[in-house]
Amino acid sequence: MRLIAFPAHWLRRSGFAHDCRQPQTDSRRGACRGGRERQLPARAEGQGAVHDLARDRTWVRHSPLPQRAQCLHRPDAHGWEVADGHHRTGLGADTTPGADGRWRVIAYAQVGRDPATDRKRIRSAPRFDDFLKEYWTRWSPQWNPSTLATHDGYRRLYLDNAFKGVFIDELNEADVAKWFSDLNNRAGPGAANRTLEILKNLLNKAEAWGYRLENTNPCRSVRPNKRRQCERFMSADDLARLGNVLAQLRIDDNPTIRACGAAITLLLLTGCRCREILTLQWHDVKGSRLLLRDSKTGPRTVWLGPAAREVIDSLPRRAKIPWLFWNTHYRRPIRSLQYMWEAVRERADLGKLRIHDLRHTFASHAAMNKKRCP
Predict the structure, then answer these.
(1) What span, in angstroms and rounded, lies between the C-alpha atoms of 52 and 44?
(2) How far apart are CA 49 and CA 5, in angstroms?
(3) Given this model, what pLDDT does residue 6 score?
(4) Residue 345 burial (CB count, 10 A)
(5) Model pTM?
């Protein structure tokens, strides 16, 4: 905390303080203010500015925080007025023409802020929905196709209709906290966490592109939901039961069911993610290797064992169809295995085992056998 003394005649020329010895007329109240000014106390408690009548100086006390520099005006006989660089509290009223702008410029300059830059930013700040479109246009080309598809779904469900009418620079912690709480009730904790991360990155870009002040992202104060530890590793008995069910699926009369059984078998034998397997095309199969183009961690190579190679060789090749796993009923690639997995899980008596747990099972067995995990 530091105390700075300014000569009163300099402050009067700058409009920052009034001459306490000359009476002035309040333009709003029509009351003479000079007659009672000398009766005001010569000291005020707390942060602020104090006019020393004996030395004809005004003392301005500054807070150590850069955005909380405060000064105390003495505008009239009705009390004191505190200014913090953003607004003034009603301890008094400064009615000198132009003083409202002068004290604001001086206070901003003392903390290193440029009011002209702030006004330009406020005029150019779009509404949230407009900035959402701009963010998607400028930033989504850097995402891989699977990430873009996932984010498109979260945007359509949870972001397009959020914060209606709110400008991007006015979005605050209360708005985000209320939205996140409602989203937890509608979508669940996992989807809420994913959408919160998208919103956080979006507001970071709003700061980088000049629409918000730096370090004002309200998502930083919102605590995400705690992740559940729901991983499960399959025992030898679980693997035996699952293997029997998958073997039956691979000889089913329905070609789509056979393709789903082969895809789930490859998930278990390779440790790949579900989307990585379902998007495979024949030119991605190079002998005993899979070239994954659209992987979560970028393009990579997965080596195939004899059992995985046998599963791929059993799949039929169709003319002008590049995908390995084809839905013959809808005549399109298989997009999801969840419905088939629920039936397999029930038949194999695997409880609530998730399809992603097949990847964890592969990793655990590979680690025990000192193999490299993909």
Answers:
(1) 11
(2) 9
(3) 47
(4) 17
(5) 0.52
